């Protein structure tokens, strides 16, 4: 899968996770379709997709044994690094540490890891 296709998979998993876990009606920006997603966000999604894929490869498949929380934390950490890459002074919510993320976002990050994991198998 190309990095662009991986970025789309990431975005689709994000939207599905938001729709599944967000309490109430999510902000429109949380569920913006791929075609309307800003370029920086597409690039960040592609980079995180690639990082998760590489992590799965270098673990020789053993990353499947991680807990859902560990999987979500990995995605969240990779995303935070991308926010620092794309923004000089990112919004605090873009770079919040795992314990400070809302539950719906932690669950969505774990869903993203598992979607990439499924795609890699």
Automatic annotation (TrEMBL):
This is Uncharacterized protein. The lineage of its organism: Bacteria, Bacillati, Actinomycetota, Actinomycetes, Kitasatosporales.
């Amino acid at each position: 899968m190309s990095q662009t296709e991986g970025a789309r998979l990431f975005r689709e998993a994000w939207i599905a996770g938001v729709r599944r876990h967000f309490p109430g009606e999510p902000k429109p920006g949380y569920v913006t379709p791929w075609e309307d997603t800003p370029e920086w966000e597409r690039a960040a999604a592609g980079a995180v997709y690639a990082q998760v894929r590489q992590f799965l490869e270098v673990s020789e498949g053993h990353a499947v044994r991680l807990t859902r929380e560990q999987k979500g934390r990995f995605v969240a950490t990779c995303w935070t690094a991308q926010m620092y890459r794309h923004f000089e002074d990112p919004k605090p919510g873009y770079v919040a540490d795992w314990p400070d993320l809302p539950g719906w976002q932690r669950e969505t990050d774990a869903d993203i890891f598992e979607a990439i994991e499924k795609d890699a198998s």
